Amino acid sequence: MFVAAASITLLLGFAAAATAASARYGASLPAQAAVNRGVVELETGRADGASVAIAEDLADLIDDGATRRVLPIISKGGLNNIVDLQLLRGIDLAIVPDDVLNDAKQQNRSPSLDYNITYVTKLYNEEFHLIARSDIKTINDLANQKVNVGGHGGGTEITTTRLFRLLNIPIVMTNDESSVALEKLRQGQIAAVALVTGRPAPMFRDLIGESNLHFLSVPLSPAVTAEYVPARLTAEDYPALVAYNHPVDTIAVGTVLAAANLQPDSERYRNLVNFVDAFFTNFQSLLLPGHHPKWREVNIAAELPGWRRFPPAADWLQRHAPTAGAPSEQALKAIFARFIDERQQAAGGQPLSQQQKDELFSQFERWQKQQAR
C-alpha cells in the first residue's frame, strides 16, 4: 500500500511539473504541425560515401524554415535503400546506385519495382576503388582470395558481385565495415577492400606512408564497358597511392535520386512536388564553389532508361526545357574534362594536365563561337 501511494504521489508530482512547464513555455514551442510542414525524408548511403554530403547540400538549398525541410537519413545504402523506399514508413527519396536498381529489377527482387519506384533525376558517378596488399599485383591475383565488400545488400557488394562475374574471377566476399576491413588488410587477413564511392574518398586519401597498399586496375573489357562507365583514379585524387602520370583504370557507377510511389492527393506527395520545384529551380547554385564537386557531373534533364520519372519532375523539365538542358559554363567545362579523360583512357593515352584541358576547352569555345556566325 505504501509503495502504491508513493508511486501515485510521484506521478502527481510529475504531472504538476509538466503542467507548470507547459504553462510557462508552451506558447513559445512550435506546434507539431509546423515542425512537420513540408518535410521530405531523404535516405543516403553510408557516411563514408558522397551521398551524405550531397544530401546536406540539398538540405541547405531547400530548407526555408517554414514550408520546406529535407531530413537526411543515413542508411546502409544499396538494396537496403530500395527496400526502405517501398516499405519503410516516411521515406520519400533515396540516393541509389543505378546498377543496384537494375540488378533488383533483373533479379525480380520486387514484382512491381518499376511501378513502386520512380526517379527525380540522375545524379553523379561514384568510382569503384579496389585496394590490395603489395603482393597482389593484378586483379586476377584475387582469384579465390578474400575481398571485403561492405555490408550485405550494400551498393559495393552488388557492384563487386556483378563486376567479378563479368571478369570471370571467383572471390570470397567478406562484409566488414570499411575501416575494420582496412585494418584486416594491413594485417594480411584479407587480400583486398572494395569500395564504391565518389573520388577522392577520405578513407583512402588519408592513407599516408602505406607502402604495402596500392590500388588495382580494373580491365576494361567490352563486357565491363557495356555495363559500366570507364573512370580513372589519379595522383590528384590520391597523391600517396597513385603515381603521377600513372592513373589507375577503374569503372564508375551512376547514382539516382529515386522517389517512393506516393498517392497524388497525399501531403507527402505535395511535399515532394515542392521539393522538386525548389531543387530544379535552384539547381545551378549547387555548381558554385562550396558545394560537393560531384554536382558538376549532374544533368537534371538526363534520362534513366527503363525507369519512369516522377511525373511532377517530368512536368517541370518540360516547362523549362530550354534552360534545364543547358549546363552552366562551369558544368560544361567539367563535362568536357570528363569527356577528354574518357577518350584518352579508351585510346590508352596518358591523362592530360588541367592546364592542357583548359586550353582545349578554350579552343572548343572559340570553335563554337565561329560555328554560331
Number of domains: 3
**Residues in helix, %:** 40-55%
The percentage of residues in β strands lies in: 15-25%
- Give helix and strand order, one letter per element, not per position: HHEHEHEHHEEHEHEHEHEEHHHHH
Rg from Cα:
24 Å
Largest sheet: 10 strands, mixed
CATH C-level of the largest domain: Alpha Beta
CATH superfamily of the largest domain: Periplasmic binding protein-like II
The general outline is: globular
* CATH topology label of the largest domain: D-Maltodextrin-Binding Protein, domain 2
Distance between the termini: 97 Å
Secondary-structure-derived class: alpha/beta
- What quaternary form is this? single chain
